[in-house]
Write a structure and sequence with these properties.
Elements: H1 2-18, E1 22-23, E2 26-30, E3 35-37, E4 39-40, E5 49-59, E6 62-69, E7 85-87, E8 97-99, E9 108-117, E10 120-131, E11 135-140, E12 143-144, E13 150-160, E14 165-169, E15 175-182, E16 188-196, E17 206-212, E18 220-225, E19 228-237, E20 243-244, E21 248-259, E22 264-268, E23 278-281, E24 284-289, E25 297-303, E26 308-314, E27 317-318, H2 326-368, H3 380-384, H4 397-402, H5 409-419, H6 421-426, H7 443-446
Parallel strand pairs: 2-10, 12-19, 20-27
Antiparallel strand pairs: 1-4, 3-8, 5-6, 5-9, 7-8, 9-10, 11-13, 13-16, 14-17, 15-16, 17-18, 19-21, 21-24, 22-25, 23-24, 25-26
The chain binds 2-acetamido-2-deoxy-beta-D-glucopyranose.
Length: 447
């Protein structure tokens, strides 16, 4: 731990001692902007004399003078005297150079040099990098589905500096490669292709081009929707294996996917023309009334610009409706009907019970003039009497109490008519009786 640290320290110290010229390692700027190439020589001792400052640029392995200053002389700029290059301060301690506006050609390595006495020349090196923000675009290529790997999308980062790096994000299997072209102005255009085996499944899928470049604070993501042309994929829907003679409104539908979207559908049979009883409505084949003429195979043929696909549907016309498999549906319907009937029975029972309760209470109050605490005897008597083959309804306690057990059915019915108008409608005996309330129901249901 100690050894590397002290090594670093001595290296830094030596730099400080020998490299007294203060420069930045790298300066960046955009074309048209201003670049400041800092260069300072802070003289710490009056023993050191500076006689000249010079900026040089490395060009093709040689050094070219860019800016020269001597005391008592005008600063000179041998490479470009147009005023685009100048000193920030005219000074023997500060040789900071300004270049404005920047040109692509200004990029390079610059050396700032102070001629001193007694130590000789002291210098610092700065790299000036010119940046250019690229224009990034990506698009899919219209490709036809096939078996070989081909470029399906292209991403371009144009006129950037330094060159961009392009990658792709894709869930589909594929790879990518990139190529670079250096433009006349020194910028670089990078092009990357995403390659894959184009399949119908990849059509309309999205992949993303990711461009990274120094001038971009974060990578730029450009989504691309793939476009793979493929011939129609066709199915025929609507045959339920229950086409029987004289069935009405049997329909077949030809369902097709494709890129481009298929628009042309054609129906036929193996023998050629369609039976006269069918109607074609685009992708639909309508049979108003099924007959033996449609006991055949129907062919749907769909075409787009890529190709043509034909599929067949064999139709079996039956003499009778196909009951196989209808069990489940029938069972469900039967269950629903049973449930409705059950609900109706229960509801009816409740209504009758309430009616009886109400009537009984009224009867008790009118006839007995007593409190309703009156307790009727048990109904066994009625059951003991075999002659009275009456509905259970007759076993009401109020009835037992009011009338003797020996009472005939007609009398009893008369009584029941008084206490309960519903009974009127239910009773076979009193056919002429009309219910006072509009409540009529089947006796069978009640019993
Ligand atoms: C339809 O054709 C099949 C044989 O392909 C035959 O078994 C069937 O009886 C035919 N249907 C009618 C209604 O003739």
């Amino acid at each position: 731990m100690g050894a590397p640290r002290s090594l670093v320290f001595w290296c830094l110290l030596s730099v400080v001692l020998t490299q007294r010229v203060k420069v930045r390692n790298e300066v960046t700027g955009y074309v048209g902007d201003e670049a400041t190439l800092q260069c300072l020589f802070p003289t710490t001792s009056s023993d050191v004399k500076v006689s000249q400052v010079t900026w040089m640029k490395e060009m093709g392995g040689k050094k070219q003078n860019v800016a020269v200053y001597l005391p008592d002389h005008k600063p000179n700029f041998p490479l470009d005297n147009s005023g685009r290059i100048r000193f920030l301060n005219v000074s023997l301690q500060d040789a900071t150079l300004i270049i404005q506006p920047l040109r692509m050609g200004d990029e390079g390595t610059y050396i700032c040099e102070f001629a001193t006495y007694p130590h000789g020349n002291e210098d610092g090196v700065t790299t000036l990098s010119i940046l250019a923000r690229p224009t990034n675009t990506a698009e899919s290529r219209k490709v036809v589905a096939g078996n070989t790997m081909i470029p399906v999308a292209v991403c371009t980062s144009a006129n950037g500096k330094p060159p961009a790096r392009i990658t792709w994000i894709a869930t589909l299997p594929g790879n990518f490669n990139a190529s670079e072209v250096t433009n006349g102005d020194g910028t670089v255009t990078v092009t990357s292709q995403f390659n894959m085996v184009p399949t119908a499944v990849a059509d309309q899928e999205q992949i993303t081009c990711v461009v990274s470049q120094r001038t971009l604070t974060e990578p730029e993501n450009i989504p691309v929707t793939l476009s793979v042309l493929y011939p129609p994929q066709v199915t025929i829907e609507g045959y339920d294996d229950n086409w029987y003679v004289s069935r009405s409104e049997a329909v077949l539908r030809c369902v097709a996917k494709g890129n481009p979207k298929p628009t042309h559908y054609s129906w036929s049979t193996p023998s050629g023309p369609l039976p006269p009883t069918v109607q074609v409505q685009g992708d639909r084949l309508l049979v108003q009334s099924v007959d033996v003429a449609v006991n055949t195979t129907f062919i749907c043929q769909v075409t787009n610009s890529v190709g043509t696909t034909r599929v067949e549907q064999i139709i079996l016309v039956r003499a009778q409706p196909n009951m196989d498999g209808a069990g489940s549906t029938g069972g469900i319907i039967g269950g629903i009907i049973a449930a409705i009937v059950a609900v109706a029975v229960v509801a009816t029972g409740v209504l009758i019970f309430r009616q009886q309760q109400k009537n009984r209470t009224e009867q008790d109050n009118d006839d007995l003039d007593g409190p309703p605490a009156y307790k009727p005897p048990p109904p066994q008597k009625k059951i003991e009497d075999p002659e009275l083959d009456l509905p259970r309804y007759h076993e009401l306690p109020t009835l037992e109490d009011k009338e003797p057990a020996t009472m005939g059915p007609s009398l009893e019915d008369e009584y029941l008519d008084q206490i309960n108008p519903i009974y009127d409608a239910l009773s076979f005996a009193s056919g002429e009786g009309v219910p006072e309330q509009g409540f009529i129901m089947s006796r069978a249901l009640y019993v």
